[in-house]
Write a structure and sequence with these properties.
The structure holds three protein chains of three kinds.
Chain A (H helix, E strand, L loop, with lengths): L1 H9 L2 H19 L5 H8 L8 H26 L8 H51 L2 H12 L10 H15 L2 E2 L6 E2 L13 H17 L18 H10 L1 H16 L5 H15 L11 H24 L6 H12 L8 H4 L1 H35 L2 H20 L2 H19 L5 H27 L2 H6 L2 H27 L2
Antiparallel strand pairs in A: 1-2
Chain B lengths: L2 H24 L4 H27 L12 H21 L1 H15 L7 H25 L11
Helix pairs in contact in B: 1-2, 3-4, 4-5
Chain C lengths: L1 H19 L10 E5 L6 H17 L3 E5 L6 H6 L9 E7 L1 H8 L11 E16 L7 H10 L5 E5 L4 H13 L4 E5 L2 H9 L5 E5 H6 L4 E6 L24 E8 L5 H15 L2 H10 L2 E5 L1 H25 L1
Parallel strand pairs in C: 1-2, 1-3, 5-6, 5-7
Antiparallel strand pairs in C: 3-9, 4-7, 4-8, 4-9, 4-10
Classes of the chains: A mainly alpha, B mainly alpha, C alpha/beta.
């Protein structure tokens, strides 16, 4: 009965309006490369100071979930993840758009995001306190192995030549080493350049590596950027819904992985979508279609990243430890509004928390109409405007997106340099996606490794740290299966078809 | 030797050299700080060696031909570099206006007439103005103002 | 013909802009405050709470610009390249700017490169253990550390930050040898502590209070006991001469003229004097203070004398 009251409190016209405005603002900001979810939430935080705490939370939650979906637009249409959570969306989303399925991809991303967002919110609603304990069971070693699991994806992103893919992954890892090392304090590979002391920033690097090569080829020839038959097709909603019905396993897996990884404070939405993508490919009977426009790859990534919104709020509320960077800002909003986090939040401040969770459900559901409508316009704009508009527009995003994140021209230079490099080596068969993977996962792997070595040395056995903990062993088993399963499956299939 | 084999040989040599560089550089770091660069370096050397050798062993498919105009590609990169590097000097508005104009010319494949010119000028101006308002006022991003004036 | 008209118009506009430029009142436009950490951390949060207070005090916006990297060094290395117009300011933290140039060579800047105009806040550091830990007090922890040197792990944020300094100072004061485990940010170090992945941790009082369901604070490294946790002993009264924490300060680029530095100092001092700001900050466990430009020099010198030896000690151990 009480719950109905909270639902009603969440559905006041004012809160509904805030949820709607938040989702719209989130989708727009998320779609702009360089404006991450964290940036969007942080920049809108001061506008919530004068609101009631619950309205402030609903608004920020809506911005967060909207931006996580909005990032898929640029990922699908111009191969540029709008937020780091959408990196894995580019792998299949962009090939889909290239072959003329852009509107389908955007509609699928919307459906998958809503499903993932709902699953994450349900987890937050129903099982938050026990799930939060999982976050605490993850130590440095588990993060190390989790990053290694993510790196095994290099194999699936290598487009035919495993050695070249692995070299690309190592290049990404090497880039992640630049700057002051967190664990050892060594200043590495900065070549006396102060701008490199902080390392290579992820957002401009990803924009450069993934988007600039697309632009470089876009200007070279007069053909349309994306294929499409005559007039722009509609939402292709029926087709997308049918695909979702046939892939409920993918959506469930993606949503659960997203929720689970969202809970881990040092991981976040980008890792969640990568792991979901990798696991979906592993479970697939035709893994070779991934990376060439496989709808399931897109669905896995988009359901997982929106599930991290609810998942990440679990440790934020229960433990006071943010699950994702954007949650750190939401945690700040709680503190500023005088709300103390902890398990007691769900009992003592039940009205606040449950009203907010209902607000998050509403915002997630609002994403369906808002996302479909805005997605249609985004797609329509990208396919129908001439190149003389498209190229300057996308170029504007790459430059301003790289600049805006830290207001630093050095980031623009890094974006351009990495972009030209990626285009050149891409011509020679070295793919860019594994570089992104290495850059993203390298720091997590290295920090986890270093901390585990220090702890292992202190407790007497480094070996026991790496191979003596149950969760670590489970992840190692997954790594082994991921590496060995595809060849075994291939052999099995070859036997089946003589 | 076929062209793809030459490419693989040089790529392999380059990554092995880079890997060697990482291993050598890691000698200057503390034990913990050296572990990763060394591991990545060794991996690069090994992978580079495999790639270089495989060029001789296995026939590689030919590289896809480069489609379209290389001149336009070079001009595009030059325009982007000009745009990015001129930001702190010319400021956001001037630099972006020049950059967008240059990219419009680079990506144009049709004849210009008065109507198209007007359309592009108006469209780009509107776009720039809209994003200026969004970034500077909506998101409070301190945009570069330009040091020259 | 048309070109010439346009040029003339542009020139007129430029002259107009120049004529309007020097204004007596400071601030006459939004003031940028660069925060050298990501959004959501303690420093960022404090700055965001200051935004409305600044607006109230000056009528102008305080614009926060996050520039994270290398524990703050990325931003501090770029400070003097920013325009010295008084409208560009940066958050700095002591002892970080004293430790980094010694510990992380090259850090990209020297302590003396940072021009501080106002010290406005203090975050006391606390020594904490997981809730289920067998260590009930500092004595237990020291006894265990003495019994098995190098076996007790202690988490903190980064290498060459305040947590690392506190660990080194405490080791020296207690005659122990603990294993320092650096984490990338406060949140991940605290998660490791709550999950008992480490035996103990140095963290901030604000975190200790927020996370009190899952961790136990053993002592605070401030000069006096703190109002938010009056039962918590200071390390000093327990016989360990350790006072540490983070002192927040407003810094300006070196090119900022002397008179303007004073104005910036007074303006920010006015903002942090705001009642609502002070109430919020003390609720979080932060101590508000306001050492203005004339007083800053002596304070910074004192901190350098205190922390430079610690930095050299950490460097020698690396």
């Amino acid at each position: 009965m009480e719950l109905l009251g909270y639902a009603a409190a969440a559905a006041t016209p004012y809160n509904l309006l805030l949820a709607l405005v938040g989702v719209v603002a989130g989708v727009v900001l998320g779609a702009l490369p360089g404006i991450s979810s964290t940036f969007a939430v942080a920049v809108l935080l001061p506008t919530t100071f004068t609101m009631e705490p619950v309205s402030a939370l609903i608004f920020l939650g809506a911005v967060y979930t909207g931006s996580t979906y909005g990032g898929a637009y640029s990922a699908i249409l111009v191969n540029t993840p709008g937020t780091p959570q959408n990196i894995a969306t580019t792998f299949d989303g962009y090939p889909m758009a290239r072959r003329g399925d852009g509107s389908l991809a955007i509609t699928l991303a919307c459906l998958a995001s809503v499903v993932g967002g709902l699953v994450g919110a349900i987890a937050l609603f129903a099982v938050a306190p026990p799930l939060a304990r999982v976050a605490l069971a993850f130590g440095p070693v588990e993060y190390f192995w989790l990053a290694v699991l993510g790196l095994t994806m290099i194999a699936s992103l290598s487009e035919g030549n495993l050695v070249k893919g692995a070299i690309a992954g190592c290049l990404g890892l090497a880039l992640s080493l630049v700057g002051v090392s967190v664990v050892s304090g060594d200043t590495r590979f900065v070549f006396d350049t102060p701008a490199l002391v902080g390392g290579i920033n992820l957002v401009p690097a990803v924009i450069g590596l993934l988007c600039l090569p697309v632009l470089i080829d876009m200007v070279a020839a007069p053909q349309a950027h994306l294929r499409h038959e005559g007039k722009v097709q509609g939402y292709r909603l029926a087709e997308a819904a049918a695909l979702c019905r046939g892939a409920w396993g993918t959506l469930t897996r993606g949503s659960l992985i997203g929720t689970g990884i969202g809970i881990l404070p040092a991981a976040g939405g980008s890792i969640a979508s990568l792991v979901a993508y990798s696991e979906t490919r592993r479970a697939s009977r035709h893994p070779q279609t991934f990376g060439t426009g496989e709808p399931r790859g897109l669905m896995a990534s988009e359901s997982a990243n929106n599930a991290t919104v609810g998942g990440g709020l679990i440790p934020t509320f229960v433990l006071g430890i943010p699950g994702t960077p954007a949650d750190a800002v939401i945690l700040g909003a709680l503190l500023i509004h005088g709300v103390r986090t902890g398990p007691a939040l769900f009992t003592e401040r039940a009205a606040l928390i449950y009203t907010f969770i209902f607000g998050l459900f509403i915002a997630t559901l609002l994403m369906l109409p808002v996302g479909l409508l805005m997605g249609r316009y985004a797609y329509g704009a990208i396919v129908s405007i001439p190149k003389t508009f498209l190229v300057p527009l996308v170029a504007f995003f790459t430059i301003i997106g790289s600049y805006a994140i830290h207001n630093d021209v050095n980031d623009v230079v890094a974006m351009l340099a990495l972009g030209v490099f990626a285009w050149l080596v891409g011509r020679l068969g070295i793919p860019a996606a594994p570089m992104v993977l290495g850059l993203l996962l390298g720091p997590i792997a290295e920090q986890g490794y270093g901390q585990a070595v220090i702890i292992g040395t202190a407790t007497g056995s480094v070996w026991a740290q790496f191979f003596g903990r149950p969760i670590a062993l489970a992840i190692i088993a997954l790594i082994v299966i991921t590496l060995l399963a595809p060849p075994l499956v291939r052999r099995y299939l070859q036997r089946g078809t003589p | 030797m076929s062209w793809p084999a030459v490419v693989d040989l040089s790529l392999g040599a380059a990554s092995a050299a880079l890997g060697l560089g990482l291993v050598v550089a890691s000698g200057a770091y503390s034990e913990l700080g050296a572990a990763f660069p060394r591991a990545v370096g060794i991996a690069l050397v090994a992978l580079g060696a495999v790639l270089a050798v495989s060029g001789f062993v296995r026939r590689r498919p030919a590289l896809a031909a480069l489609e379209g105009s290389s001149a336009r590609r070079v001009l595009f990169v030059a325009a982007m570099a000009l745009w990015g590097l001129s930001l702190p000097w010319l400021g956001f508005l001037v630099s972006s206006a020049i950059g967008m104009a240059a990219l419009t010319l680079v990506s144009n494949f049709s004849r210009w007439d008065a109507r198209r010119v007007a359309l592009h000028l108006a469209g780009h101006a509107a776009l720039l103005a809209a994003f200026y308002v969004l970034l500077a006022y909506g998101l409070q991003v301190p945009l570069p103002e330009g040091r020259l004036f | 013909m048309r070109t010439r008209t346009l040029c003339a118009a542009l020139a007129a506009a430029a002259i107009g802009a120049l004529a309007a430029a020097p204004a007596a009142a400071y601030p006459d436009k939004p003031v940028i405050f660069v925060v050298p950490y990501g959004p959501g951390g303690p420093s960022d949060l404090g700055a965001r709470v200051m935004q409305p207070a600044f607006k109230k005090a000056t009528g102008r916006d305080l614009v926060i610009q996050n520039k994270p990297g290398a524990g703050g060094a990325t931003a501090w290395a770029q400070l003097n390249a920013l325009p010295g117009d008084g409208h560009t300011t940066m958050l700095t933290a002591m002892p970080h700017i004293i430790l980094q140039p010694v510990v992380n060579q090259p850090a990209g800047y020297e302590t003396e490169d940072i021009t501080i105009v106002l010290v406005y806040g203090y975050l006391p550091e606390v020594l904490a253990v997981p809730k289920a830990s067998k260590f009930q007090n500092v004595k237990d922890l020291v006894a265990a550390a003495k019994a098995s040197p190098g076996r007790i792990t202690i988490a903190g944020t980064g290498v060459g930050g305040a947590n690392h300094a506190a660990q080194a100072m405490f080791d020296r004061a207690a005659g122990t040898r603990t294993a320092y485990v650096p984490f990338k940010d406060t949140a991940s170090g605290n998660a490791a502590l709550m999950g008992a992945q480490v035996d103990s941790a140095w963290t901030w009082l604000s975190q200790g209070i927020t996370l009190k369901d899952n961790i136990r604070m053993l002592a605070v490294a401030s000069e006096e006991r703190v109002a938010l946790a009056p039962e918590l002993p200071t390390l000093k009264e327990l016989g360990f001469n350790v006072t540490s924490g983070a002192w927040w300060a407003v810094a300006v680029p070196r090119s900022t003229p002397e008179a303007l530095r004073r104005q910036v100092s007074q303006t920010f001092a006015k903002a942090v004097a705001d009642q609502e700001y002070r109430a919020k900050m003390s609720e979080f466990g932060y101590v508000t203070m306001a050492l203005t430009y004339p007083e800053v020099g002596g304070f910074v010198k004192k901190k350098i004398d205190e922390f430079r030896p610690v930095a050299q000690e950490i460097r020698a151990k690396k």
